Recover the amino acids of this structure.
């Protein structure tokens, strides 16, 4: 065999090996990096601590290495002073800087911890801290797409769902990945790709919440939902529980989206504990107070075909009226900063009835509880003393009506119902069937 032929065979063998490697299921292209703005727990903070948990990092200030080979247990602090950002090492200030970075330097899984006066969480990847014009800190966590989703899926659903609802977790992984791709640049003006806030984007809590849901991210690696014709990623909105009927996008955000069409959703019914059915009781005084009205004496509802409330008109004792959209009305009474109960106002899928008028009635926020109380004690709390079902009773009786809002579901109702997905998974549906049920005119495709 001549040297030329031998060389040709070697080159051919290398090319074949490369093709096989690229075709192998074990081969993976480097996932795009995601800059996540940590604004959910850290918004408005001007001081925080950070610490290496595992792996090795370099600490940089304005792009220059301050400490190299920083290992587990090494802690630092960052604070916003009157003239700039301050880096503290071993409790001592190192002067004012514009940017602080913690960058991984070896192959071991790099993890760091961030802590403030209200939270402590662990994150993969790198950390960047800068100072915003208002003096508060902007904190950004950069990591790979898959690793980012490891910290999203268990927050949006639950690691515990892997036992009976693994297909729902896979559906959530695809929906969350799609949401990332379709919203990847929306936060650029703020210094990141996407935030960790469920109110703004999707919930993300980093390495601290990783668990069984990570496998759902892995087995759907690269998969997103695309429009069947354009092949572009869709706006894969999702919510907790539809209450039995998902909603058309235009009835929530004003724009018609062919992928987000409302439909009956029996799979959500009976799922989600408090998110399934709830009742909120409120006095006429409590209803009028946040809207600048006196005690409300009349409530009228206008509804969409789904049963969700399109408009609420409240009239007080003076004859003054205020009109709000159903979603606006909910925000006045929605629970914030605490766990929900079955006595909370959770969505605009509701009906209303007057429980009683006058000052000599009995409070019946829950008929079953009332009947039990009446049978055992021959008495019950007074309707005329109620403010709302989640606040203590008033000390003085009121002659105004008390209203019972009976509703179902939790969230805006557009796109995939997370509890409905869980219900479908438990009935044996696959993740592709779940996604194709909740989203219209879509296909599952590998992201480019």
């Amino acid at each position: 065999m001549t040297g030329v032929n031998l060389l040709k065979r070697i080159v051919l063998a290398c090319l074949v090996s490369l093709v096989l490697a690229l075709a192998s299921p074990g081969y993976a292209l480097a996932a795009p990096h995601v800059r996540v703005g940590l604004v959910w727990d850290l918004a408005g903070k001007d001081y925080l601590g950070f610490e290496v948990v595992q792996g090795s990092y370099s600490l940089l200030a304005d792009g220059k290495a301050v400490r190299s080979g920083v290992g587990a247990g090494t802690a630092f602090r960052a604070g916003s002073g009157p003239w700039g950002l301050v880096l503290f090492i071993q409790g001592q200030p190192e002067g004012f800087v514009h940017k602080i970075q913690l960058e991984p330097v070896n192959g071991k899984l790099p993890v760091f911890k961030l802590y403030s006066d209200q939270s402590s969480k662990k994150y993969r990847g790198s950390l960047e801290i800068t100072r915003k014009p208002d003096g508060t800190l902007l904190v950004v966590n950069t990591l790979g797409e898959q690793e980012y989703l490891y910290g999203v899926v268990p927050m949006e659903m639950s690691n515990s769902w892997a036992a009976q609802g693994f297909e729902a977790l896979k559906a959530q992984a695809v929906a969350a990945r799609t949401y990332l791709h379709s919203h990847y640049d929306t936060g650029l003006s703020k210094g990141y790709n996407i935030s960790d806030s469920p109110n703004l984007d999707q919930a993300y809590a980093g390495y601290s919440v990783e668990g069984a849901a990570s496998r759902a991210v892995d087995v759907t690696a690269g998969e997103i939902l695309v429009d069947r014709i354009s092949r572009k990623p869709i706006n894969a909105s999702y919510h907790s529980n539809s209450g039995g009927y998902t909603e058309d996008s235009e009835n929530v955000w004003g724009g018609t989206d062919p992928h987000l069409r409302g439909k009956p959703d029996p799979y959500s019914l009976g799922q989600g504990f408090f998110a399934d059915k709830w009742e909120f009781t409120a006095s006429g005084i409590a209803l009028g107070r946040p809207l600048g009205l006196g005690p409300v004496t009349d409530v009228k509802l206008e509804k969409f075909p789904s049963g969700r409330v399109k408009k609420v008109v409240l009239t007080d004792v003076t004859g003054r009226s205020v009109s709000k959209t159903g979603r606006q009305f909910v925000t006045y009474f929605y629970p914030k900063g605490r766990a929900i109960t079955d006595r909370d106002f959770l969505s605009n899928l509701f009906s209303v009835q007057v429980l009683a008028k006058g000052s000599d009635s009995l409070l019946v926020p829950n008929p079953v509880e009332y009947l039990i109380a009446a049978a055992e004690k021959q008495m019950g709390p007074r309707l005329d003393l109620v403010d709302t079902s989640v606040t203590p009773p008033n000390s003085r009786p009121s002659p105004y009506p008390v209203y019972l809002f009976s509703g179902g579901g939790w969230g805006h109702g557009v796109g995939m119902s997370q509890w409905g997905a869980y219900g479908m998974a438990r009935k044996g549906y696959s993740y592709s069937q779940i996604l194709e049920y909740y989203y219209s005119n879509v296909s599952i495709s590998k992201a480019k």
